[in-house]
Amino acid sequence: MGESNQSTASDFILMGLFSNTWPHLILFFLMATMFTMGLLGNTILLYLILTDSRLHTPMYFLLSQLSLLDIGFPVTTIPKMMADFLQGGGSISFGGCAAQMFFLMLMGVSECALLSLMSYDRYVAVCHPLHYPALMRRQVCLLMVGTSWFSGVFVASIQTSVTLHFPYCASHTVDHLFCELPALLKLSCADTSAYELALSISGVLVLLLPISLIVTSYGLVLGAVLRMHSAEARHKAFTTCSSHITVVGLFYGAAVFMYMVPGTYHSPQQDNVVSLFYSLITPTLNPLIYSLRNREVQLSLAKVLHRAGFRSIR
Questions:
Q1: Residues 53 and 135: beta-carbon distance below 8 Å
Q2: What are the start-end ranges of the H helices in the chain?
Q3: What is the pLDDT of residue 264?
Q4: Which residues form a coiled coil (predicted)?
Q5: What is d(CA 183, CA 110) in angstroms, rounded to the nearest whole number?
Q6: Are 94 and 187 in contact (CB under 8 A)?
């Protein structure tokens, strides 16, 4: 009990990414620009999906949830990093660290589940188009989204509570950009080897099961596309699916490196780059990937811009 009280009484110190040098100042403004672009892009995509009736389909409903997650990822981490740089500090309270770790885990696991279910949606659309309205009816979509969010809350609640149960009686300096589970475990003065093993096993379940569903779904989609006689139909199917495959590759590549590769095989500097990749870069790229390669989104955006321009002229 004394060890636990000692851990809750002290703040953690985040190492951060910036220092008062010109290269780091340039990096700071670059990250601020990407953060703003990501928020703006995902908000616009979310607005288009909500307001344009042509986008009221299961695929875009699932995509709207991805946009929500891509807003939450950078909001949880980047403002704190920027505030620390501007204020010249890096401390975070025990409760703040717990909240940051919980929401990162929640959104990460939810996105893993959501991306796998989005691949199932594309499988049904390409391989069973006549049954698509029945297989992807509103109740099924709500169940898929609810499952994604519930899995995130469930895993995050367990792993955050277990991680914070360990005593942190040694250094409170987190050699990471933000409070993330692997970095925090390194500070514990208790034996965490059994929990790290359990964490690796859960990482296999959380990451490999969705990846298996994605690979299976797109394997069947590829077979169906190659059998199509219409070049236009093949092009449309490839365009839609390639956008999702690109997003899956970006997100899962970083997640597998962070949570499935043992910590002894990568340095804190590599962890920082990978964490920055899926907490800022991927959420910024996702709306660009879907809007640049998706004709429906382009038409919807053009319609909104045309209306805005017409009103300003009037």
A1: no
A2: 2-9, 22-51, 58-87, 94-127, 132-135, 138-165, 181-185, 193-203, 209-226, 231-259, 268-276, 282-292, 295-313
A3: 63
A4: none
A5: 21
A6: no
Q: To 10 degrees, the CA torsion angle through 115, 160, 200, 204?
A: -20
Contact at 8 Å (CB) between 150 and 117?
Answer: no
Q: Give the residue among 281, 205, 203, 272 at the shortest CA–CA distance from 246.
A: 281
- Tell me the sheet residues that pair with 13: 91, 173
Closest residue by Cα to residue 184 from 10, 1, 12, 17: 12
Q: Mean per-residue pLDDT for 95-119?
A: 90
Q: State mean pLDDT over 193-219.
A: 81
β-strand pairing of 173-174 with 12-14: parallel
For the record, the structure tokens of 184 come out as 């925090």
Q: What is the mean pLDDT of residues 69-96?
A: 85
At residue 173, the 3 state secondary structure works out as strand
The single-letter code of the amino acid at 100 is Q
Q: Identify whether the C-beta of residue 42 lies closer than 8 Å to the C-beta of residue 286.
A: yes
Average pLDDT over the chain, rounded to an integer: 82
| Residue 1, pLDDT above cutoff 50 | no
Residue type for 305, please?
Answer: L
